[in-house]
């Protein structure tokens, strides 16, 4: 296509390209509908057409093309987000999805839903993490999105506890850059006497609060969305630590932006559901186990097979067993690889034999962005 030299030429080319893009998206949507019919005729359809491994492969290719000879000025994140929305719309024609998340509206978990699934799903806010698991277990939601760890605040223990006992599988992960804002109906930090927030957000903004609002009362609530709702309801003198989206929903003013103590603040979320994703080519496996009590080197014996097999362990967390007086711990481990790979399966069988308790939480595609 000839490079336009005048504004009318540029607009004409944009109009022509818009028409082509719209035509191609419509063609893709019709093929997506046909995919659903093919699956049903072949008996492969189970009513759920969302395939995490397939979507991860598509997004990886999108990013690879962005660096190729036909790549453009858009960032990897921008081009992936555009493709995600197209995929989301097409998937909704095949199989509309309901996604349970930690509400109310405006939470970072809702932002994680939008990043992973796009906007063409029914996002269902829940009051607590255990309710998300229960909603998916009973079939009231197709998948759930739960926070599991933050780069500053550490792990989310409620999520770890639920993973031990649920029959659900980890189907995917989302990483989200988190920026906290001090929000209020007023426009002056000097008048703030109480701040609402989730416990994790307080931990992530502790230094900022200590320096600028040392005398303000801090009250922990179930989510940042709930914090924003309370700040809007109670009015003057009350503030919330929450996202810009929560501020817009509750018509709050931004008193201070990006108040997290570290700008590289990132939260990891897990997608939980009833299906085991297939190999995608870049996968993680999550397991949880306990060591035999009073055996020297018990934890080393659990980790040694992974090291000997050359498997890259990406995370290790411990959590004391609830209700246990003695120091028994669950060990949560993530490593690179898929449970269906023969090499990984052999390692897991070895670890299972050394553990007092052992459970595979899921094998799933590594987050693309």
UniProtKB/TrEMBL annotation:
Residues 287-365 form the ACT domain. InterPro entries: ACT-like_dom_sf (IPR045865), ACT_dom (IPR002912), Chor_mutase/pphenate_deHydtase (IPR008242), Chorismate_II_sf (IPR036263), CM_dom_sf (IPR036979), CM_II_prokaryot (IPR002701), G/b/e-P-prot_chorismate_mutase (IPR010957), Preph_deHydtase (IPR001086). Keywords: Amino-acid biosynthesis, Aromatic amino acid biosynthesis, Coiled coil, Cytoplasm, Isomerase, Lyase, Multifunctional enzyme, Phenylalanine biosynthesis. GO terms for biological process: chorismate metabolic process; L-phenylalanine biosynthetic process. Gene3D superfamilies: 3.30.70.260, Chorismate mutase (1.20.59.10), Periplasmic binding protein-like II (3.40.190.10). This is Bifunctional chorismate mutase/prephenate dehydratase. SUPFAM superfamilies: ACT-like, Chorismate mutase II, Periplasmic binding protein-like II. Signal peptide: none annotated. The record marks 267 as: Essential for prephenate dehydratase activity. It is found in: Cytoplasm. One of its GO terms (cellular component) is cytoplasm. The keyword Isomerase applies. It comes from the Bacteria. Catalyzes the Claisen rearrangement of chorismate to prephenate and the decarboxylation/dehydration of prephenate to phenylpyruvate. GO terms for molecular function: chorismate mutase activity; prephenate dehydratase activity. Residues 1-98 form the Chorismate mutase domain. CDD domains: ACT_CM-PDT (cd04905), PBP2_PDT_1 (cd13630). Residues 7-34 form a coiled coil. The lineage of its organism: Bacteria, Pseudomonadati, Pseudomonadota, Gammaproteobacteria, Nevskiales. Pfam families: ACT, CM_2, PDT. Residues 98-274 form the Prephenate dehydratase domain. Its EC number is 4.2.1.51, 5.4.99.5. It catalyses: chorismate = prephenate; prephenate + H(+) = 3-phenylpyruvate + CO2 + H2O.
């Amino acid at each position: 296509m000839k490079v336009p030299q005048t504004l009318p030429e540029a607009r004409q080319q944009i109009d022509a390209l818009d028409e082509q893009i719209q035509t191609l998206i419509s063609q893709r949507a019709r093929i997506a509908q046909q995919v659903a019919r093919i699956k049903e005729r072949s008996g492969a359809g189970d009513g759920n057409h969302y395939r995490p491994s397939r979507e991860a492969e598509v997004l990886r290719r999108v990013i690879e093309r962005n660096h190729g000879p036909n790549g453009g000025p858009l960032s990897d994140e921008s081009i992936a987000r555009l493709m995600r929305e197209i995929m989301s719309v097409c998937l909704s024609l095949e199989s509309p999805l309901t996604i349970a998340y930690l509400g109310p509206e405006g939470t970072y978990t809702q932002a994680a839903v939008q990043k992973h699934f796009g906007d063409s799903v029914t996002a269902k806010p829940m009051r607590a993490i255990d309710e998300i698991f229960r909603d998916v277990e009973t079939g009231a939601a197709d998948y759930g999105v739960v926070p599991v760890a933050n780069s500053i605040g550490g792990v989310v223990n409620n999520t770890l506890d639920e993973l031990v006992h649920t029959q659900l599988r980890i189907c995917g992960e989302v990483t989200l850059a988190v920026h906290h804002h001090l929000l209020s109906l007023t426009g002056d930090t000097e008048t703030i006497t109480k701040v609402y927030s989730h416990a994790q957000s307080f931990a992530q903004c502790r230094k900022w609060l200590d320096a600028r609002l040392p005398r303000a009362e801090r009250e922990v609530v179930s989510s940042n969305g709930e914090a924003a709702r309370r700040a809007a309801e109670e009015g003057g003198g009350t503030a919330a630590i929450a996202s810009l989206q929560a501020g817009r929903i509750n018509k709050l003013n931004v008193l201070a932006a990006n108040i997290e103590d570290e700008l590289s603040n990132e939260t990891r979320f897990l997608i939980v559901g009833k299906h085991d994703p297939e190999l995608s080519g870049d996968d993680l496996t999550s397991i949880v186990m306990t060591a035999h009590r009073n055996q020297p080197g018990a934890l080393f014996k659990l980790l040694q097979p992974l090291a000997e097999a050359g498997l890259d362990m990406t995370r290790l967390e411990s959590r004391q067993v609830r209700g246990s007086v003695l120091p028994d711990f669950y060990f949560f481990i993530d490593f690179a690889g898929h449970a269906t790979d023969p090499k990984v399966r052999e390692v897991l069988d070895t670890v299972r034999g050394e553990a007092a308790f052992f459970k595979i939480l899921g094998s799933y595609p590594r987050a693309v962005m």
